[in-house]
Amino acid sequence: MNNQILTNRHDFLLLFDVENGNPNGDPDAGNMPRIDPNTNKGIITDVCLKRKVRNYVAEFAKDRGEPNGNKYNIFIQQGAVLNDEIKKGVEATRSSLSDNKDEDWARRAMEWLCREFYDIRTFGAVISTGEKPLKGSAYGQVRGPVQFTFATSVHEITPLEITITRCAVTKEEDRTKERTMGNKHIVPYALYVAKGFVSPAFAERTGFTNADLDLLFEALCHMFEHDRSSARGQMVIRGLYDFEHVGTQAATNPAQNQREARVGCAHAHKLFEGIQIKLKEGVPFPRSFEDYDITCMWNDENLPRGVKLHKRIDVS
To answer: Are 123 and 114 in contact (CB under 8 A)?
Structure first.
């Protein structure tokens, strides 16, 4: 495990599917699965995916060591009072010096919070909601190095509303009723694609390390295995393709090579286009993952110079 600050840019493509479940309900539509009205394709928000990562880290990384002083607590979690957590960082970095400047104090508080909370140094956070010194400070808006797009289904989805019954009642006056009615919303089947980006420039600011990146990919590979519920049906990670930018220069020019690895050696959308997803011939619409052909067009010979592909999960 490398505990150095991340120096290489990464772009990754995540494939996952759902069967008879609601992967991300829309509270503005009675908790129906989210859908793009223009294309009828399903969508899943970026914050939904980040929630899965947070849940995994909170459950399985809490007992790990603290490399470089970094901890694995989670800032955004149910029941947390954010200003109380922010205040801990402010108090922990309070200086007894009379010439203590708010800007220096805000920087130290931000760095303390990044070390304490994995999701702040990974995804960023708004930490200017309390009092001084972070309120109104440039350090109160933390931009994280890891960002996701919305996940979009490859094909159109047809959400269903399923009526269910319950033989028990909740109120004494309903005791004579034989059963009560309810409903749940599902997507019979859909394959979703999400894109992710990791910026070394922002990693330097939050202290995001290579070990943190390894934990991120570990969480992505297992995030549905430990987050089961009847509402979400069966969700499975089907592919995770990580494009690492390593630079094109020889070992004799390390400075330029490091610059290229930091900035990137190819456009992300071009790299993603090399993962092709098509329905098998004769299949009118997808009913399962077996109805798809997934093809990775990239190999060591045709990858853009300076880019390395890590097939963390590959079905092609």
So the answer is: no
